[in-house]
Structures are given as C-alpha cells and as structure tokens.
C-alpha cells in the first residue's frame, strides 16, 4: 500500500481529534444538554479556547480536501515517489503541530507551521501538475 494512503488514514484520525477537541470544549461551556439537543437556541460567544479550536477545525477542513485530492491523485496517476511521501508527511506533521499552537493562541509560529503544511501539499501536487 502506498504511504500516501497511510498519510490519508492518519489525517482522518487528526480530523476526529479536531472534531472532538472542539466539541469537548464547547460542551464544557454550554453543557451536555446543549450537546445532545437540537442546538436551536441562541448562545453566548465561545470562550477563547473553544473559539480557537473551532477555527482550527474549520481551517483543517478547508485544506483537507486539497490534501485528499493530491494524495489520492498521485496514487491513482502512479506518480508516487519519495517526494510525494515526504510532502504528505510534511503536511500531516505540520497539521498535527498546528492544532496545539492554535489552541494555545500562538500567532506567528502557527502561521509559519500553516505555511509549511501548504508547502507539503504543493510537493505532493507537483507531479500532478507537470507532464
């Protein structure tokens, strides 16, 4: 099995971590009744940590489809290589580091790590963009 598929599987685990981290802090703030309810009521703004985790989750969900297409694309096109594997690991590693940085409210380093994740995606995409 290509390593790019393994990276995708781990990215799904990371997606679950994002989802449950954000849900956990929102439930701590709003209570289990809110979590199990229809969530129709107007609520006060999220506390800073909850807000950061929700935004980190949204950010991950925005770039995840690009990573999925890139990683599956190189497998389907038969263009996997050490470079695409490295790019995938760079992307995933950066995304793993990004979550606690965002949760802690660390601004500049978080952005640098985000940019590193984009470089990783571009490394994976490159073989699909060249003839």
Description:
Its main location: membrane. Pfam families: MAPEG. InterPro entries: MAPEG-like_dom_sf (IPR023352), Membr-assoc_MAPEG (IPR001129). Keywords: Membrane, Transmembrane, Transmembrane helix. It is found in: Membrane. There is one protein chain. By secondary structure, the protein is mostly helical. The protein has a single domain (3-129), classed as Up-down Bundle (Four Helix Bundle (Hemerythrin (Met), subunit A)), CATH 1.20.120. Helix content is 82%, strand content 0%. It contains five helices and no strands. The protein has helices spanning 3-30, 32-36, 48-76, 82-104, 107-129. α1 runs parallel beside α4. The longest helix has 29 residues, at 48-76. The model has no long low-confidence stretch (mean pLDDT 96).
Instruction: Predict the CATH topology.
Output: Four Helix Bundle (Hemerythrin (Met), subunit A)
Radius of gyration: 17 Å
Q: What is the N-to-C order of secondary-structure elements (H for helix, E for strand)?
A: HHHHH
Ends apart, CA distance between termini: 24 Å
Structural class: mainly alpha
How many strands appear in the DSSP assignment? 0
| Sheet with most strands | none
Q: Ranges with pLDDT <50 over ≥5 residues?
A: none
Helix content estimate: over 70%
3D shape: elongated
Q: Give the CATH architecture.
A: Up-down Bundle
Q: What is the CATH domain class? A: Mainly Alpha
How many DSSP helices? 5
Number of domains: 1
What proportion strand?
under 5%
């Amino acid at each position: 099995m290509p390593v790019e598929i393994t990276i995708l599987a781990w990215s799904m685990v990371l997606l679950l971590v994002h989802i449950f981290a954000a849900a956990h802090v929102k439930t701590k703030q709003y209570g289990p009744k809110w979590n199990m309810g229809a969530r129709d009521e107007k609520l006060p703004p999220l506390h800073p940590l909850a807000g950061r985790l929700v935004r980190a989750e949204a950010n991950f969900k925005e770039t995840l489809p690009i990573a999925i297409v890139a990683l599956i694309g190189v497998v389907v096109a038969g263009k996997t290589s050490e470079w695409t594997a490295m790019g995938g690991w760079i992307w995933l590693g950066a995304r793993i580091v990004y979550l606690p940085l965002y949760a802690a409210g660390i601004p500049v380093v978080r952005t640098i790590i985000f940019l590193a994740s984009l470089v990783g995606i571009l490394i994976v995409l490159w073989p699909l963009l060249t003839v």
